[in-house]
């Protein structure tokens, strides 16, 4: 048989080891794989047996020239591509368990905007924590030739990209992959100073409570106020307000930016306020659809804040604070 390929020559043994699976048992178990695989069984044995019973039939792998064992699976060249398509679905699903976040996740977009602002603020270049999707696949010893079959089967556990049939956007080579470790600093809640504030008002805020709250919010943003930590924070901010524990800003210029496509008309000053309810995307402070006016006292932060890309126009409005404005300065509490 000229066109047989043994399972070892697919080069997927290491990958299946990583996934704690076995290719042979998978073929036996998954109909869509079995459909494209051949087996050296009795029927084939008899077919290959020549009429005179002169020699025992053998099938050699056309790549490594090793013998295909009796009762072993192998592939015919013509069914290789459909088989790889199916097997890469399984691999895609398996490695996707390790994709906690991707560059399409809102959380990651925020994280990157946050890093850009830190860069502008401190002049230090933040280390890029994401891993390129090809590097990620390489980590599972997936042969490079198979990337094109695996990529469309990847799914992000956070934003769900790749899972929903109706969403046509799929993973491609430009995607970055992140895990919890990359985000530890970003997501960790440093509560020492905050709890000192709280203690002043006899409110007992525990670190674990806030850490739980932070992950609760990521999963159930609309239910935030149901959480005990939210009740405590609400009580804390109310008391701080009552006790006059806030900053007052006045006679200050603040800025707000909006991007638009090149060649379009400049935004009118009326269009530079907070977006109408229902149109905003998810932001650092607001949920999708809720309306918040983001302002900065430093114009340099605007491009990062609005995810400006060079091919766009960027309009910046200046707002002047006329009446004293009471501000809860969170940076004082951290
Ligand atoms: Zn072989
Ligand atoms: Zn994602």
Task: Please give a structural write-up.
The chain is of the alpha+beta class and 334 residues long. It folds into four domains: 4-79, no CATH class; 101-110 and 119-182, no CATH class; 188-242, no CATH class; 247-326, no CATH class. The chain contains 13 helices and ten strands. The protein has helices at residues 13-18, 23-29, 31-34, 42-48, 80-96, 106-122, 133-138, 147-150, 180-187, 192-200, 207-219, 228-242, 302-305; strands at residues 4-6, 38-39, 73-76, 101-102, 131-132, 176-178, 247-249, 253-261, 312-320, 325-327. The strands form four sheets. The protein has a three-stranded antiparallel beta sheet, with no helix packed on it. The longest helix has 17 residues, at 80-96. The model has no long low-confidence stretch (mean pLDDT 86).
**How many beta-strand runs?**
10
**Whole-number average pLDDT?**
86
Report low-confidence residues grouped into runs of 5 or more: none
Major sheet description: 3 strands, antiparallel
What proportion of the residues form beta strands (DSSP E)?
5-15%
Radius of gyration: 29 Å
- The CA-CA distance between the termini, in Å, is 71 Å
Number of domains: 4
- Series of secondary-structure elements, N-terminal to C-terminal: EHHHEHEHEHEHHEHHHHEEHEE
């Amino acid at each position: 048989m000229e066109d047989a390929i043994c399972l070892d020559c697919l080069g997927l043994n290491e990958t299946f080891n990583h996934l704690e699976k076995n290719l042979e048992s998978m073929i036996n178990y998954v109909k869509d794989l079995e459909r494209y695989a051949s087996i050296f069984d009795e029927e084939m044995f008899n077919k290959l047996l020549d009429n005179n019973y002169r020699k025992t039939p053998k099938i050699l792998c056309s790549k490594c020239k090793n013998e295909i064992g009796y009762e072993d699976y192998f592939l015919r060249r013509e069914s290789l591509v459909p088989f790889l398509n199916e097997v890469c679905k399984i691999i895609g699903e398996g490695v996707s368990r390790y994709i906690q976040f991707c560059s399409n996740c809102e959380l990651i977009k925020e994280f990157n905007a946050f890093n850009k602002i830190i860069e502008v603020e401190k002049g230090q270049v933040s280390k890029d924590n994401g891993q390129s999707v090809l590097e990620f696949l390489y980590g599972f010893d997936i042969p490079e030739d198979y990337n094109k079959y695996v990529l469309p089967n990847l799914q992000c556990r956070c934003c769900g990209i790749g899972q929903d049939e109706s969403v046509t956007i799929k993973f491609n080579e430009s995607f970055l992959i992140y895990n919890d470790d990359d985000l530890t600093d970003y997501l960790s809640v440093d509560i020492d100073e905050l709890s000192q504030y709280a203690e002043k008002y006899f409110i007992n805020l525990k670190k674990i409570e806030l850490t739980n709250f932070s992950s609760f919010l990521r999963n159930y943003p609309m239910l935030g106020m149901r959480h005990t930590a939210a009740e405590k924070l609400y009580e804390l901010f109310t008391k701080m307000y009552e006790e006059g524990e806030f900053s007052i800003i006045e006679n200050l210029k603040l800025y707000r930016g909006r991007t638009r496509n090149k060649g379009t008309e400049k935004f009118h000053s009326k269009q530079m306020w907070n977006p109408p309810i229902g149109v905003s995307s998810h932001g650092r402070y607001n949920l999708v659809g809720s309306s918040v006016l983001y302002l900065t006292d430093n114009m340099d932060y605007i491009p990062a804040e609005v995810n400006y890309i060079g091919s766009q126009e960027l309009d910046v409005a200046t707002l002047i604070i006329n009446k004293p404005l009471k501000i809860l300065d969170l940076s004082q509490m951290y």
